[in-house]
């Protein structure tokens, strides 16, 4: 998704801006650009290609300067084109980059057109540049403070002005923005990762903040225009461009990192205790009588799996809601509910807004399961469990999902313990099983050659069905999402018992039906559902386990996972589905790590 980098320094900042853009590349974008203050003028370079292309363009023109801003754009309003790429200029005086969506852009466009501004792009962003110019009377900081009062929607912006060569102004509301504090130089970015290697002294701007960056000054006002001090934190941000090592793609690397990621996520777990989720967890867990989970995409499927665990182990009722729906729905708030957000990035706009909505409704006990310790989600929740998946670069979530599952299983156990539903023997058994997970996952990864053989058959298909039951229905959904997002094969998941209520009409010999079939309590029911598929000529691709007692026969292909893993089986059964999606996409020649139209962190609504 869109990324921002900006700087005011006494050295040429072009390399810093370009390096920052490269570090943000993995989030997904379709155009990029840089603008600098050069000899009393604004100059820019934009490209609808990759950042390396932009760099080549800049190398040719020799664009260099001490003050400037840069951007990667993921199109929302207007097609990916040079004219729509940021930075946007107003009257050759104001240069601006923007993340987010301005909801009242049409109204502002009409007003500014009447005032004589000529629009060169189809973006919502350009109105902000013109609005700031319109309100500019010699003080950029003042003009930006006035302008943001007129904006509705979500934004993070960085702006500079031809007439104030050593100043960059930033503002945020609903989209993240950070300041990097240097010595005699200052920086701004949408993510601390963009500044890795430049500065580790980071200020996280709060909602409504406007910041004035000059060489020796970093001045912040809040949404009331009151001067505020924000804490400077030392942040060791990782580079987004982690080494690929022997792998062809980040997704492949991240799939194979899962034994390590799970081990790291569970590293401090020697016994079950609420304090794993924060100092105040004991009191909160004691008080709550239900759980509300809010998340999007893959993280939502982790939430659906957690519902099964929490209800069956802790006997606490759980609702799981898609964040973008929940935030606009009239729901009945329960102040005794624990609100749990799940997010890899911790910056997903819909999930953050849903969290805020829950809080506004009086649900004040909040916990996040998140992979980024410095993210907005972690800062805004009372309790947190940080998954230690490490930086996930591939757009398709893999190790983030399985580590979320590990953390959510722990949550189920901790809640069960507090509610007196976990005895010592059960606790010891669960801890032993969790400790063994990295080894068990490695054994599943070794099935890769068999999965590649299946993937070659899948590559020729345009549709696929995924079936699961109970605890494994969300895993089937995750398998379908993985396949569709990176191979572009249409895939849908159903709880297998639901087949006969409609989707069975789709089943022909052309329809591969992937079945998640560990030996759980529903296995016999699932076998009957499989027969319904076979009777209609459908080809079954079954991920069974050591105890499932399903044998291969005509139209039934079976890959057997080496162990039966009980309640934790969803974690193991996710792995072959990831590999199937990866190898199918590879065979189809898609851009696995950056699938079309998608972004890694979805920071707009
Ligand atoms: O960072 P988050 O976990 O909040 O992101 C939520 C979804 O955007 C994300 O899981 C998305 O569905 C993935 N691309 C799926 O692989």
Automatic annotation (TrEMBL):
Residues annotated as domain SIS: 281-421, 454-595
Principal location listed in the UniProt entry: cytoplasm
InterPro entries listed in its UniProt record: GATase_2_dom, GFAT, GFAT_N, GlmS/AgaS_SIS, GlmS/FrlB_SIS, Ntn_hydrolases_N, SIS_dom, SIS_dom_sf
SUPFAM superfamilies xref list: N-terminal nucleophile aminohydrolases (Ntn hydrolases), SIS domain
PROSITE patterns xref list: GATASE_TYPE_2, SIS
Alphabetized UniProt keyword annotations: Aminotransferase, Cytoplasm, Glutamine amidotransferase, Repeat, Transferase
Catalytic activity field: D-fructose 6-phosphate + L-glutamine = D-glucosamine 6-phosphate + L-glutamate
Keyword Cytoplasm listed: yes
Transmembrane spans: none
Active site: 2 (nucleophile), 600 (for fru-6p isomerization activity)
EC number: 2.6.1.16
Location of the Glutamine amidotransferase type-2 domain: 2-216
Annotated GO MF terms: glutamine-fructose-6-phosphate transaminase (isomerizing) activity
Cellular compartments annotated: Cytoplasm
Enzyme class label: transferase
Quaternary state and interactors: Homodimer.
Role: Catalyzes the first step in hexosamine metabolism, converting fructose-6P into glucosamine-6P using glutamine as a nitrogen source.
UniProt protein name: Glutamine--fructose-6-phosphate aminotransferase [isomerizing]
Lineage: Bacteria, Pseudomonadati, Pseudomonadota, Betaproteobacteria, Neisseriales
């Amino acid at each position: 998704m869109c990324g921002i980098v900006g700087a005011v320094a006494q050295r040429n900042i072009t390399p810093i801006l370009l390096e920052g853009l490269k570090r943000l590349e993995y989030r997904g974008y379709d155009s990029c650009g840089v603008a600098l203050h050069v000899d009393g003028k604004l100059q820019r370079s934009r490209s609808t290609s990759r950042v390396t292309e932009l760099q080549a363009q800049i190398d040719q023109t020799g664009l260099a300067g001490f003050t400037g801003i840069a951007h990667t754009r993921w199109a929302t309003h207007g097609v990916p084109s040079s004219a729509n790429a940021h930075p946007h200029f107003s009257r050759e005086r104001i240069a601006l980059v923007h993340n987010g969506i301005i909801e009242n852009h049409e109204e502002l466009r009409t007003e500014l057109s009447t005032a004589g501004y000529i629009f060169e792009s189809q973006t919502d962003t350009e109105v902000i540049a013109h609005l700031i110019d319109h309100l500019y009377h010699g003080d950029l900081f003042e003009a930006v403070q006035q302008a943001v009062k007129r904006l509705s929607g979500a934004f993070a912006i960085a702006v500079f002005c031809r007439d104030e060569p050593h100043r960059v102004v930033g503002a945020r509301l609903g989209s993240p923005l950070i300041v990097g504090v240097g010595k005699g130089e200052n920086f701004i970015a949408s993510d601390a990762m963009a500044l890795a290697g430049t500065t580790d002294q980071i200020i996280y701007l709060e909602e409504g903040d406007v910041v004035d960056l000059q060489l020796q000054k970093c001045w912040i006002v809040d949404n009331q225009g009151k001067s505020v001090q924000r804490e400077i934190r030392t942040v060791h941000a990782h580079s987004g461009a982690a080494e690929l090592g022997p792998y062809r793609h980040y997704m492949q690397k991240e799939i194979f990192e899962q034994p390590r990621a799970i081990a790291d996520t569970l590293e401090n777990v020697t016994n079950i205790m609420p304090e794993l989720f924060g100092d105040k967890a004991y009191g909160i867990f004691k008080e709550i009588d239900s759980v509300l989970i809010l998340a999007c995409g893959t993280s939502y499927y982790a939430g659906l799996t957690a519902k099964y665990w929490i209800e069956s182990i802790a006997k606490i009722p759980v609702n799981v809601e898609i964040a973008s729906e929940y935030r606009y729905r009239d729901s009945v708030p329960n102040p005794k509910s624990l609100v749990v957000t799940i997010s890899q990035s911790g910056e997903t706009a819909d999930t953050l807004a849903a969290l805020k909505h829950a809080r506004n409704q009086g649900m004040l006990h909040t916990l996040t399961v998140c992979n980024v310790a410095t993210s907005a989600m972690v800062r805004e929740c009372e309790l947190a469990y940080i998954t230690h998946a490490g930086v996930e670069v591939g757009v398709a979530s893999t190790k983030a999902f399985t580590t979320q599952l590990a953390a959510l299983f722990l949550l189920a156990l901790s809640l069960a313990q507090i509610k007196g539903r976990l005895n010592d023997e059960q606790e010891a058994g669960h801890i032993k099983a969790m400790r063994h997970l990295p080894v068990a996952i490695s054994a599943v990864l070794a099935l890769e050659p068999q999965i590649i053989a299946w993937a070659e058959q899948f590559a020729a298909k345009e549709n696929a069905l995924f079936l699961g039951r109970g605890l494994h229905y969300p895993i089937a959904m995750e398998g379908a999402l993985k396949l569709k997002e990176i191979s572009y094969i249409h895939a849908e998941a159903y709880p297998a018992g639901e087949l006969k209520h409609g989707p069975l009409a789709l089943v022909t010999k052309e329809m591969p039906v992937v079945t998640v079939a560990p030996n759980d309590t529903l296995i016999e029911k699932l076998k009957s559902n499989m027969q319904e598929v076979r009777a209609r000529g459908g080809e079954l691709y079954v991920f069974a386990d050591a105890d499932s007692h399903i044998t291969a026969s005509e139209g039934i292909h079976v890959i057997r996972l080496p162990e039966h893993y009980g309640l934790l089986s969803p974690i193991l059964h996710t792995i072959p589905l990831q590999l199937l999606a990866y190898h199918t996409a590879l065979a189809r020649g898609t851009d696995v790590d950056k699938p079309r139209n998608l972004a890694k962190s979805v920071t707009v609504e």
